[in-house]
Amino acid sequence: MSFAASSLLRWRQSSAHNRLSARFHAHLPTTSSSIAAFSTTAPSFFQCAAVNLNRDSSKGNFNSSSTSSNPCDNDKNKKRTGSASALFASASAILTSASIASSSSSADKPKLLSTMPPAAATPNHSKVVIIGSGPAGHTAAVYLARANLNPVMFEGMMANGFAPGGQLTTTTDVENYPGFPEGIMGGEMMDKFREQSVRFGTVIHTETIGKVDLTSQPFKLWREGEENKEQPTDTANSVIIATGASAKRMHLPGEETYWQAGISACAVCDGAVPIFRNKPLAVVGGGDSAAEEAVYLTKYASHVYVLVRRDKLRASKVMAARLSNHPKVTILYNTIPVEVKGDGKLLKSIVLQDTVTKENRTMDANGLFYAIGHVPATALFKGQLDLDEDGYIKTVPGSTETNIPGVFAAGDVQDKRYRQAVTSAGTGCMAALDSERWLEEHFPDQH
Ligand SMILES: Cc1cc2nc3c(=O)[nH]c(=O)nc-3n(C[C@H](O)[C@H](O)[C@H](O)COP(=O)(O)OP(=O)(O)OC[C@H]3O[C@@H](n4cnc5c(N)ncnc54)[C@H](O)[C@@H]3O)c2cc1C
């Protein structure tokens, strides 16, 4: 089974998925009747929504309520428009949940779908949309929802290879996130993040954003599968990008079996766990990250072997010297791992290949740490947002502002240095506060 497929399966079996299914089934009658009631008055809601969306925003700020003669300006209609889109949004979330719920509900689907237009066909406007559902996205959601900004989150549907909840759904114990003295399973932690976002009113769509246009206000977003449509599926005045990153993997024979059972891509996250204590460990890579990870692991390992493909390190002189001089480190040049082996539960050895002679040998090791780079999930934004040489979104130092006013980036997608859950949550908070301030300044009447 592919990594993506196994993650999806894990997620489908997780409490998040069960909760979504339960929520769908529990709310089905109410929601259907709400949708039916909504449909009868939909045109006027849509007219107002369209008017509010299409107003001229060329007067220095983007205040969409500047046309006072518009009948949609009265409070009642504004509220109705808002609740219309909120209803569509939550209906869409429930429908999407339904579509990924167990096939036992399939008998209900045609009937349900026929009661409302597909949500993706309707442009939904929000003050702020969050793309991504890791610690950064959910922290932003909690802050924005508590500030009454009605955030809408696209949590992704195996976007970038991850289940909703992000990278932590692929790990077991998280022991370094404050507030959980006994540690917590990664998936469970992200369930809690999600619950907190929902508790304060975040509307969550289990869908991936497939295309964006950030060149003008309102920002335009297309859900995956709808990218070829002329009209966007969603619009927003502010966008928070929290799409994360993924560690590059080698896909060695045996890797699927021993991923997170000896193989890791994060020494800071996993180095201290008991299976690595006083054991020989290996790090793959020759750059600064590999050097940092290897030195970090010396605190726990009996010895650390650094596997370097070439005959020299790419790391900076300082890091290379630190590594070479460390008594618990051996650098194996011209060496790559080609297979991992174990007892079916835990990694026990690595088959190494000499890149010059092509000879293989087996080395005992209880851990293999990949330090061969990360790929930030920024393909969607190329050509629109300023990215650095490794593809990370550039933000103004000390803030989450990107080069486009109103677009903010948080979490691993803009951080190639720390890449931790708590730092992602921290920048998620910053992005929410930055976005809130920006909206207040540019859309004061909507605030
Ligand atoms: C195996 C493993 C173990 C780890 N253990 C720890 C640990 O113990 N402690 C710790 O602090 N850190 C740990 N980390 C690092 C931590 O998981 C990350 O730093 C953190 O998850 C980054 O959060 P994020 O919010 O930036 O994004 P992510 O967690 O990467 O989440 C991004 C989410 O956005 C979604 N997405 C992407 N593109 C789109 C799109 N176009 N539309 C909609 N959704 C989209 C993705 O599907 C994903 O769900 C670990 C990482 C891994 C891989």
Automatic annotation (TrEMBL):
Pfam families: Pyr_redox_2. InterPro entries: FAD/NAD-bd_sf, FAD/NAD-binding_dom, Ferredoxin-NADP_redctase_2, Pyr_nucl-diS_OxRdtase_2_AS, Thioredox_Rdtase. Its EC number is 1.8.1.9. Binds 1 FAD per subunit. GO terms for biological process: removal of superoxide radicals. GO terms for molecular function: thioredoxin-disulfide reductase (NADPH) activity. Residues 127-428 form the FAD/NAD(P)-binding domain. It comes from the Eukaryota. Its cofactor is FAD. Keywords: Disulfide bond, FAD, Flavoprotein, NADP, Oxidoreductase, Redox-active center. One of its GO terms (cellular component) is cytoplasm. Homodimer. Belongs to the class-II pyridine nucleotide-disulfide oxidoreductase family. This is Thioredoxin reductase. It comes from Entomortierella chlamydospora.
